[in-house]
Amino acid sequence: MNKSKNTQLELNLCLEDENSGHENKILARDFPPEWQLIPLKNAVTYIDYGYSHSIPKIPPENGIKIVSTADISKTGELLYSQIRKVEAPLKTIQRLTLHDGDVLFNWRNSSYLIGKTTIFEEQSEPHIFASFVLRLKCDEIKSHNYFFKYLLNYYRYSGIFESLARRAVNQANFNKNEVSDLIIPLPPIEEQRKIASVLTLIQEAIQEQENAIALTTELKKALMQKLFTEGINNEPQKMTEIGLIPESWEVVNLGNLAKLKSGGTPSRKKIEYWENGSIPWVKTTEINYDLITTTEEYITKEGLVNSSAKMFSKGTLLMAMYGQGVTRGRVGILDIDATTNQACVAIMPNSEDKLSTKFLYHYFSYHYEKLRNQGHGANQSNLSSTILKMFPITFPKIQEQLIIINHFDTLNLKLEQSHKRITILQDLFSTLLHQLMTAQIRVDELELSVLEKQIKE
Hints:
alpha+beta, Adenine-n6-DNA-methyltransferase TaqI, Chain A, domain 2
């Protein structure tokens, strides 16, 4: 297998295209001569299937924790907090007990998720693994488990597993033999360790930002609870239909404080209403507690004129009146002039000197569950302008509103910075993962001090 440098070495990953009869080359790269191309089974000591079981509605008191496909995240993290328990025979537990460093591979799932790979780390109580998961035990002389994790997840991100898997209804799968025979590129063990170390460094930085987001989000929830029930002036409280509020705050139905207008949808049968449109058109799925800066679809001036769609100006508060799942009741603020569909309602305070749009945005965010409980409908609990107009709004004088808004804006800025940082780190991870796994760049060529600085900035 060791050939002259830059000799074309093809991974034997190909799939017969049933429609065309042509062979699709899935991956073909120039690899360094010191890299091996070998069947996966030659880099591990064993591969075994997990335990076939059904999850009981009530977890058994003396059961054992079992890692299932749902416990492996899309990015290859093992979500320990959600792992459930089952009852299993003692022999099964003895045979399938997981050990620190075991590689877990999801061999059956939807085509997009097949191939999710993670590493089990030692826990305080024993764990086994489920039937749609394969356990791979790396040969420590030849292969590094974290390199394996990143390599197999790279195959999934690249669509290789999706292309190679056998298809069934809503499912795709490999069997153990097919996984065993998969040809993989294997650098020398020390290079594997270094590659894994670099990629783990980035993943840990991403996790640090995710932890910061979780902490800030909890802080924001606690602050909302305090400010919307106690205010900022340490004054006595009074009971209202919406709960306890500061004594000086007013309680007024939304309909007496703001105008509400819904949008509309131009006819889909009229291509001239949509083709080459330049007017942003917001759908409920695009309302998600943030500034709305762009839209998936645009309509034309003709579509605007010949429909019930309306133009709303930048700074307008929008709410999703109905939609699947958690969509109903969410709010957002336009950062552009835009139209909306009929499932969105625009809420425009009569006077910003009395009730701030941004205060209302935070108020509705806090009262999300109360809002959703107001809805009605046969298939989904819809809100309506009529219902919303009757919803009670509690609010202080504008000066206090602005102070409250500033508190939330400070936390929102922290969240925004963390989200941006995660995006940058994820892009860096994706780029390096591709370059390192295909030997486009060698790990020893990286300036690690510069990389570490880039990660920590």
